[in-house]
Amino acid sequence: MPRPPDPAKRRDLLDQVREYMIRNGLAELSLRPLARALSTSDRMLLYYFGTKERMVAEALALDERRPLLRARSLLGAVDAHRDPAWVRRFMEEVWQQFADPDLRAALPLYLEIMVTGLLRPDRYAPVVRDALTEWKDLLASVFRGMGLPEARARTEAALLVDACFGLVAGPAVEGDWDEAEAAFRLLLDRLEPGWRAT
């Protein structure tokens, strides 16, 4: 009977895969060169992960630098009073995470995943879709808790999430984070009045 995969070894491989992808991108990712760089074999990678696509998805999902993981901790107590000013502060704290050099270094990879998901939806579209859905669900629940009806809560969440993803994409390509910061604050100025229940 074959020995089950070692969870610690599996996690270590995922961490190494993620760092390799950040350095080398996704477009040319091939199992044999990756395995050589990780001092293992392509057969071993398939043994642990089944497919290259699954390996990539899991490596990204376990990235502790992901703002979504930190955002959940920022939400604090479930009974905390939340109003438009609270949402604004929450989003400003999330935005500040993008100042982290490690996260900024990983942004090109995430953008590459998004584009590849559009071009090859059979491969990486679920990775992008899941990330966007998690963000929208999280913020929609906050807006519902503030008294917004379901449809409006989901629309406000979609507008905020999609706009912020766009604001991150620009400076990840061109490097002008000051302009993105100003645009982000203007976005909040425009959206905050719409977060009030009527």
TrEMBL record:
Coiled coil, from the record: none
InterPro entries: Homeodomain-like_sf (IPR009057), HTH_TetR (IPR001647)
Keyword DNA-binding found: yes
Organism of provenance: Streptomyces olivochromogenes
Domain HTH tetR-type: 13-59
GO molecular function: DNA binding
Name of the molecule in the record: TetR family transcriptional regulator
Keywords tagged on the record: DNA-binding
Gene3D superfamilies per the UniProt record, alphabetical: Tetracycline Repressor, domain 2
Origin superkingdom: Bacteria
